[in-house]
């Protein structure tokens, strides 16, 4: 999946929004910020490519697609409101571009679902969350790269503290009855995700 303006405009215009080219450029610039190592254009492209494969499962596919573009638009490891700020940007951008209020609110809610702190409220939210978490079930090499990229983003955190906090986060996902709520993605990623997470947790204890 490319990140070119044509792909962006297809989803944007499907939501009744217009004048999206400048916003597309701004989003790409955000995902290219130098402090990012994982939450980059690579991650965005991986999410969009996977979503293209499972698009048929969505009730409002264009809303999920646009929400994916925004879900890490604001990313600062020193903040705790990145998803809220990203959701606000999506909502404002859509409303300013002429999209209906209910569409803008649904997209904002989708972005907020990527906080991963509460259960998804709708099947579309669950699908987006599962796409975002597909990295857990990636091939071992890509998963190892992901873990290394996260460490780069938190390079300012001392190793022992990082390992403790990262272990707690990964263990929280591993303790869930299921990691992926969408049946098709559970069948595809659940077993690999549990292997990857267990291995990473073990490595962080070393």
What does this structure look like?
- There is one protein chain.
- Helices cover about 65% and strands about 0% of the residues.
- With about 210 residues, it is mainly alpha-helical.
- It has a single domain (about 5-205), classed as Hypothetical protein af1432, CATH 1.10.3210.
- It is globular and about 55 Å long.
What gyration radius follows from the Cα positions, in whole Å?
17 Å
The CATH architecture: Orthogonal Bundle
Q: Give helix % range.
A: 55-70%
| Average pLDDT rating | 96
**Helical stretch tally:** 10
Q: How many strands?
A: 0
Number of domains: 1
- How big a fraction of the residues is strand? under 5%
Reading off the top of the CATH hierarchy, the class is best stated as Mainly Alpha
User: What's the SSE pattern?
Assistant: HHHHHHHHHH
Structural class: mainly alpha
Silhouette? globular
What are the segments in which pLDDT stays under 50 over at least 5 consecutive residues? none
CATH topology: Hypothetical protein af1432
Biggest sheet statistics? none
For the terminal residues, how far apart are their CA atoms? 37 Å
Topology:
Elements: H1 5-14, H2 21-31, H3 41-54, H4 61-70, H5 82-96, H6 101-113, H7 123-132, H8 140-153, H9 159-174, H10 183-205
Helix pairs in contact: 1-4, 3-4, 4-6, 4-7, 5-6, 6-7, 9-10
């Amino acid at each position: 999946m490319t990140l070119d303006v044509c792909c962006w405009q297809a989803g944007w215009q499907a939501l009744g929004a217009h004048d999206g080219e400048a916003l597309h450029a701004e989003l790409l610039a955000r995902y290219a910020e130098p402090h990012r190592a994982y939450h980059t254009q690579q991650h965005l492209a991986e999410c969009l490519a996977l979503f293209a494969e499972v698009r048929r499962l969505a009730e409002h596919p264009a809303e999920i697609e646009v929400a994916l573009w925004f879900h890490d638009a604001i990313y600062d490891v020193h903040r705790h409101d990145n998803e809220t700020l990203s959701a606000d940007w999506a909502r404002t951008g859509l409303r300013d571009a002429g999209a209906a209020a209910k569409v803008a609110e649904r997209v904002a809610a989708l972005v907020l679902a990527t906080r991963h702190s509460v259960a998804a409220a709708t099947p579309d939210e669950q699908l987006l969350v599962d796409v975002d978490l597909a990295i857990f079930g990636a091939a071992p090499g890509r998963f190892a790269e992901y873990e290394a990229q996260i460490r780069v983003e938190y390079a300012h955190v001392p190793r022992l503290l990082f390992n403790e906090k990262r272990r707690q986060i990964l263990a929280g996902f591993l303790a869930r009855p299921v990691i992926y709520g969408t049946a098709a993605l559970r069948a595809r990623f659940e077993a690999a995700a549990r292997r990857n997470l267990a291995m990473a947790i073990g490595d962080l204890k070393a």
